[in-house]
Amino acid sequence: MVADAKRQEFRKIQKTGGDSYVVSLPKDWVKDVGLQAKDPVAVQVQPDSSLLIVPRKDIRAVQHPGAILEAQGLDKDFLLRHFISYYLAGYDTVRITLGRGDSSLRGFIREGIRRKLVGVEIIEESQGAILAQCLSGYVELPLKKAFERMAIIAGGMLTDAVAILQGGNRELAEEVIERDDEVDRFYHFLLRQLNVAVRDRSVIQEIGLTSTRDCLGYRLAVKSAERVADHAAGIAAQAENLLTLSEPAAKKIQDMAALSRKVFDSSISSLLRLDEKLAEEAIAKAKEVGRMEEKLSGEVLAPRMSGAQVASTKLMLEGIRRVAEYGSDIAEIAIDLNVAEPLTL
Fold first, then answer.
1. CB–CB of 281/262 below 8 Å?
2. In the prediction, which pLDDT does 11 show?
3. Helix-helix angle 247-273:307-337, to 10 degrees
4. What is the CA radius of gyration of the chain?
């Protein structure tokens, strides 16, 4: 049983020979984490000037966990979801045993990994198994940079989705929908980093954050950005049903989408920079998008529209509003993280 984390013990700093200072560790804690005399521990300086003491056995660098996933009897979609679950959990390698060796299943898994995940390489493949290695990518693609790239793609999807109304480009609609896979790749990659960081405190600073509270905030923000891409893909699908929409009506929808995109972009910047003023501006503009939806619902809909077109228009306007609302959620996270955590004495 781990010692009560809230219990405070005050200990005096002792000076030993030379310029060294020492402080004793609580006996119960040493026993709870399985330490003995002369065992090494890592001492990490935290942003609030406190010290974090981590037993060496908890340091991530010495661990390379692997997992085995039995494919026999599993539906291919179910199997891919399970593989992604191991990836998100932070496993370094995942071996998929295929039993008799279904070539179509191997192809499906390879394609699914390519479309949905970042930093996964298939290092071994045979008729009966696939061995995939999940690379960390913390140094090559830090969390904030990956989040920013994900948001850029999602925002671009929204802009292109409403552009279909005036361009009448069905190929663009398909391209926007396909881009959702790229956002999903970053989404899963970011969740993997955050899951590992929450479990392993030594990773938090390595991925560019400062505390577990930051991890929780970014976990919510990443999900919101992923939902923005989902809505953009949905808007593109509805736009294909509205290619005959009048030019003035299409322009009004595009203006609403442009404001929604601005809310989303500003919210991302406010989080990355912890800019409270920018976050407040984004939240205010999100409310304006909501008012625009109410207004356009009466202006854009025309009596000559078919039932399907009316439904598509309403879904499109709702999707644009939801993008702004997710942006507002991200801005609120930026405000929350801008407040310093109270120090524990």
1. no
2. 81
3. 20
4. 25
Q: How far is CA 338 from the centre of its chain?
A: 19
CA distance 237 to 316: 9
The verdict on pTM exceeding 0.85 is: no
pLDDT score of 2: 44
**Is the domain covering 14-60 a CATH 1.10.3470 domain?**
no
CA distance 327 to 259: 11
- Map out the domains of the chain as residue ranges: 14-60, 66-134, 143-337
User: Contact at 8 Å (CB) between 228 and 156?
Assistant: no
Please tell me the predicted confidence (pLDDT) of residue 62: 41
CATH number of 66-134: 3.30.1370
Q: How far is CA 145 from each of CA 68, 106, 114, 129, 138, rounded to the nearest angstrom?
A: 31, 32, 20, 34, 10
What pLDDT is stored for residue 61 in this prediction? 47
Mean pLDDT in consecutive groups of 10 residues from the start of the chain, 345 residues: 56 76 84 81 69 64 71 85 92 86 81 90 86 77 92 96 83 92 95 88 81 93 98 93 84 95 98 96 97 89 79 94 98 93 62
Instruction: Report the alpha-carbon distance of residue 283 to residue 327 in Å, rounded.
Output: 8
- How far is it, in rounded angstroms, from Cα 259 to Cα 265? 10
Domains 14-60 and 143-337 are alike in CATH topology: no
How far is the C-alpha of 319 from the C-alpha of 292, rounded, in Å?
Answer: 13
Residue with tokens 């929409």: 245
The two structure tokens encoding residue 227: 């939902």
Beta strands in the chain (DSSP E): 14-15, 21-22, 41-45, 51-55, 66-70, 93-97, 120-125, 129-134
- Looking at residue 38, the DSSP 8-state letter turns out to be T
Contact 240, 177 (CB under 8 A): no
CB 332 within 8 A of CB 283: yes
Give the CATH architecture of domain 143-337: Up-down Bundle (1.20)
